[in-house]
């Protein structure tokens, strides 16, 4: 099985920050680095005034920040060091073109995929976390197929998010379900199992299923 020692999360917003803070608290042997282009947001994550308020979040962050949980603007370094990369950026509604006003705009997700393809090395699991997992994962795969170097081996997973505002930490610590989707290839299934093994640290086996 693929073992994960280092996680990078691109996007320090409402999903990425709390999710990776809980993972860091539950998996003390894994180094978790949350990165974002927004310097003010990262500065807030490294302060006592977090950029978002969720009951219990401050305590989770303070229990592992600087130990195995880090917040940084150095996106490239975090990607290079990671065994597993969460893409957890905004998927705003399209403002023009086909699907205007309805469809999700995947430009930020696609930009992350191009960055991973450009600076990544070795074997990496790339996990798409958003409310449009199937379309986003397909888009990421297309970009990787077109841009990936021969020295880079990437497996793409989808891991949809079900957080509710006000109960995010409780939802993360005791989720109704965790869904993981990946390729049916042997490599894809190894990647699924690697992510599953992280959640299994605190989520009952029967609550983890296939997306």
From TrEMBL:
One of the GO biological process terms: glycosaminoglycan biosynthetic process
UniProt source species: Callorhinchus milii (Ghost shark)
MF GO annotations: NAD binding; UDP-glucose 6-dehydrogenase activity
GO cellular component annotations of the record: nucleus
Reaction(s) this enzyme catalyzes, per UniProt: UDP-alpha-D-glucose + 2 NAD(+) + H2O = UDP-alpha-D-glucuronate + 2 NADH + 3 H(+)
Pfam families, sorted: UDPG_MGDP_dh_N (PF03721)
Protein name: UDP-glucose 6-dehydrogenase
Classification via InterPro entries: NAD(P)-bd_dom_sf, UDP-Glc/GDP-Man_DH_N, UDPglc_DH_euk
Residue ranges of every copy of the UDP-glucose/GDP-mannose dehydrogenase N-terminal domain listed in the record: 6-190
């Amino acid at each position: 099985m693929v073992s994960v020692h280092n996680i990078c999360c691109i996007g320090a917003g409402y999903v990425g920050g709390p999710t990776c803070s809980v993972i860091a608290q539950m998996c003390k042997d894994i180094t978790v680095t949350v990165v974002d282009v927004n310097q003010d947001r990262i500065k807030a994550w490294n302060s006592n005034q977090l950029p978002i308020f969720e009951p219990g979040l401050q305590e989770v962050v303070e229990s592992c920040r600087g130990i195995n949980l880090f917040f940084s603007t150095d996106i490239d370094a975090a990607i290079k060091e990671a065994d597993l990369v969460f893409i957890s950026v905004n998927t705003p509604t399209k403002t023009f073109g086909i699907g205007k006003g309805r469809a999700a705009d995947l430009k930020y997700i696609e930009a992350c995929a191009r960055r991973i393809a450009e600076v990544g090395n070795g074997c990496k699991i790339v996990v798409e976390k958003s409310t449009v997992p199937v379309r986003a994962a397909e888009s990421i795969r297309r970009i990787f197929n077109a841009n990936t170097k021969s020295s880079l081996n990437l497996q793409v997973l989808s891991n949809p998010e079900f957080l509710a505002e006000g109960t995010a930490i409780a939802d993360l610590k005791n989720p109704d379900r965790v869904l993981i989707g990946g390729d049916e290839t042997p490599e894809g299934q190894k990647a699924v199992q690697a992510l599953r093994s992280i959640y299994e640290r605190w989520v009952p086996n029967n609550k983890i299923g296939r997306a």
